[in-house]
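Hi F.,

I've been meaning to write this up properly since the lab meeting, where we talked about keeping a consistent format for the predictions we share between groups. The idea is simple: the sequence comes first, exactly as it goes in, then the structure tokens exactly as they come out, then a line or two of notes. No screenshots and no reformatting. I'm using this chain as the first example so we have something concrete to point to.
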Amino acid sequence: MKKVSRILSLILCVVIVLTAFSSCSQSLGEVKDATEQIDDSVQLKLPVCTTDSFNPYLATTQYNLALTSLIFEGLVKVKGDFTTENVIAKSISVIGNTVNVNMNTSYCFSDGSSIDAGDVEYSFNMAKESDNFSKQLENFEDISASGHSVTFTLKKPDKYASLCLDFPIVKEPADEEDKSVLGSGKYKIENSQSLIMNERWHSPKLPKVRRIRLINMLDTASGPESVETGNISFYFQDMSNGSYVRKNVQVHETSMTNLVFVGMNSHNEHLMKAEVRQAISLLIPKETIVEESYLGYGQIADTPFFPGWKELKSVRPAEKSETVNEAKELLESAGYKRGEDVLSKIMRLRIIVNDDNPFKVSAAENVAGALKTVGIDAVVEKVPFESMEGRLLRGEYELYIGETKLTKNMSLSSFFSYGGGASYGIDSTAKIVSVYDEFLEGKITLQRFVDFFDVASPFAPVCFRSGIEMYTNELTVKKYGTVTDNYENIYSWYY
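Output, unedited:
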């Protein structure tokens, strides 16, 4: 009898173990062998820096940061229209200064271990201290975690705060000696030279490419050449240096949330008048700047928000026809008489710009030319990057060409927060600042904020510049990357 009892106990234990394992491996699709040898000539090859970390919070190179979306997942995924899709989060609620998250208990790391609130807390604290993710979490004050529930406290209300919760969830190390880096994404780290398919990935869409070879790259300048020679399969060229390298490869323009704008010194005797700022905003030749200055790689910015944001579909931008005449009327209402000769003697505006960025220099020259059509004496001053900040801090300018990358919640805090990276020349006590806070709190609509922004014109949005995805000619790419993830559709790429 005791023997039968022991056998039944043993069977019960096996059932419990198998049930626990299946709860972390359900809906995985067909698990394919990822260990067989693959011909190098048809192997997907991506750039990496082998001396850099795979940890998304410690990585310092764009190569390794780009791999983050393959190895890790966030509480949510931000889609191309900047709406969220729950991933590790099962449900999210944003109420005032509080964001409550209930986690999906069926998700697990690539080693099979479950993801709990402690891993989220560990990842959040790392993200807050990391240069790579601190900006998108700057409004997050604190976190409390228990079991499979997490609560975030915000510094200020933000109804779009859930869009910031795509920071990578990394398994908390067992101790200081544990140097492993584990996530729950499409791939897991095999070694410094390869990623291998994560057979525990929750999606049924398992990648066609089971193993990705990682090619050590010394610098970004060699990226386009490496794609052309087939040394790597893919390279993203963000053109941040103001140049575009053309190669004999497949190319695809991809949108970015990098906002190019004309900053205005509202402390200047002329620019402190809203009518003058409105006139300048109307005169900026946005289409010319996109087509000529940025070689067509950009989207005109009718508002300070990314054009592809779903929330903007219901917003009507202000009608801007006969802009030159309207600008002249605004200048006249601000006390400036009509006539080019009269105005040029009164209003002289310096436009400062980085001298090492051809795109921005061209944009500044196009702005200056447009202002001269109404008689404003606009002068472009090209200054070294290292002295640009000093000029801005000292107020030694009237206008400047700036650029800032909006976080996924479309935050304008860089402009409207005291000391923000794009707040130069903006009066922190101006009405537009409190109106923006009211918008985030849900007290006014997006339409109301955009209408008020057009009147206040604290700065002039110009365009959102694009980047270039480059693929080797032999690679079949039916679905490209997205504005939020260059590797979003990598599961469908193949040779």
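Notes:
The two ends are 62 Å apart (CA to CA).
The chain has three domains: 29-72+185-233+472-495, 73-178, 257-466.

If this format works for you, I'll send the rest the same way.

G.
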